Amino acid sequence: ALVNILSEPKNSLIKQYTAMFEMEGVELDIRHDASEEIAKRALDRKIGARGLRSIIEDILLDTMYETPTKKNIIKVVIDGSVVRGESEPLIVYESPDPKTAVSE
Fold first, then answer.
1. Beta strands, E only, 1-104
2. Which domain CATH number covers 33?
3. Residue 12 exposure: Cα atoms within 13 Å on the Cβ side
4. Which residues of 60-90 are buried (b: 16+ CB within 10 A; e: fewer)?
């Protein structure tokens, strides 16, 4: 149910954060396994749907502040490993050379 709350309503949290990144010209891709991990974390902390925003904000905060200052970022990918703290978000840069387009 929490996974649906993240993505399905018209003003869902994922849609809100996607819109914020789009204002900077960056596509935000929150993978399904990330949504599941976010929901699991909310259940584990017993914070339910109201706590989903704080979890997403914790995950995206650094990236949201760094994105406007870095040039040529076209996409940020969040998967389950990012939510678990095992890796950093995947940042995709615009590049004339496709071999150098992906970082981190």
1. 27-30, 73-78, 90-93, 102-103
2. 1.10.8.60
3. 15
4. beebbeebeeeeebebbbbbbbbbeeeeebb
Q: Which CA distances in Å does 52 have to 1, 21, 37, 93?
A: 12, 18, 11, 28
Q: How many domains does the chain have?
A: 1
From CA 52, how far away is CA 50, in angstroms rounded?
6
How much is the pTM?
0.85
Question: What length is written for the chain?
Answer: 104
Judging by beta carbons within 10 Å of its beta carbon (0-12, 13-18, 19+), is residue 42 exposed, middle or buried?
buried
Expressed as residue numbers, the domain containing 75 is 2-103
pLDDT in tens, 13-42: 999 999 999 999 999 999 999 999 999 999
